Amino acid sequence: MDYDDSPDYPATSVRTVWVSDTHLGFGGAKAEALLEFLRGMRCEQLYLVGDIIDFWALKRKRHWPQSHNNLTRTVLGMAKYDTRVVYIPGNHDDVIRHYDGLTLGNIEIHDRIIHETADGRRFVTLHGDQFDSAVISSRLLGLVGSRAYAGLLNLNRLVNWGRGCLGMEYWSLAAAAKQKVKKAATYIANFEQAVAMEARHQAVDGLICGHIHRPELTWLDGVLYINCGDWVESATALIEHHDGSLELWQLGQQSARLRRLPPGDDAAAA
Ligand SMILES: [Mn+2]
User: Fold this and answer.
1) Which domain, by its residues, includes 36?
2) How many domains are contained in the chain?
3) How far is the CA of 58 from the centre of ligand 1 (A)?
4) Cα 82 to ligand 1 centroid, rounded to whole Å
């Protein structure tokens, strides 16, 4: 797709978009899907929630296809015109962490930032690797972006090709492996607990992060835990509508709204 082409469908107007873990420079990045998603959105603010450029993968192997350039240009274009773009570095792009507070070509760099929704709720937004030390086991997570993870994804593709031939639904090997880790070491539960604790400590309504490649929007101990997911597997993004309601979007065959919480909704907090 040429990035200059207008999409043949009207763009959705929203207040804010968050995407994390796009891993540009890594062979498994779903750059075309992300481009399609961003080109279909008009937003006042775009938060890039870390692991956007995968410098670890780039260091191993220089992989930068045209789609990754198109994506870069699209984001720069958004920043040039009507969108405030904030880059929050993650662990795979931690070299950018040295530039906290700098604005480069209309893109603001912040280690963490507080976002206020249209209905006045406050959310800490950061990548999430800051919680790794609070978590017992991050062995599998350490593989994300590595050769072993790429191998896992290739195997996943093969398995799903086979399942597709048999008329079966898509199944995520990496997600299943992570589920196994969850059972073994309760990594994800510990991560989410650490996030919720931080949100309560900061006296905010919730925390928005990425890092563990598991999209989620849920109440945890009275605060909202939101994980944007990733663009290696899940192809998800968080959206704030103009009324302040929050929604996890998944692109692809489902194109379904995963969860939507109306503004000020704390009914599920109990
Ligand atoms: Mn990360």
Assistant:
1) 12-131+185-269
2) 1
3) 15
4) 28
Rounded Cα gap, residues 261 and 249, in angstroms: 12
pTM of the model: 0.79
Q: Which residue has the tokens 């062995």?
A: 139
State residue 259's pLDDT score: 74
CA separation for the pair 203, 222 (Å, rounded):
11
CATH number for 199:
3.60.21.10
- Ligand 1 center to 171 CA (angstroms): 23
Per-residue pLDDT tens over the stretch 188-220: 778 888 898 889 989 999 999 999 998 999 999
User: How many A from CA of 51 to the centre of ligand 1?
Assistant: 5
Which residues hold their Cβ within 5 A of ligand 1, which is an ion?
A: 51, 90-91, 129, 211
CB 210 within 8 A of CB 228: yes
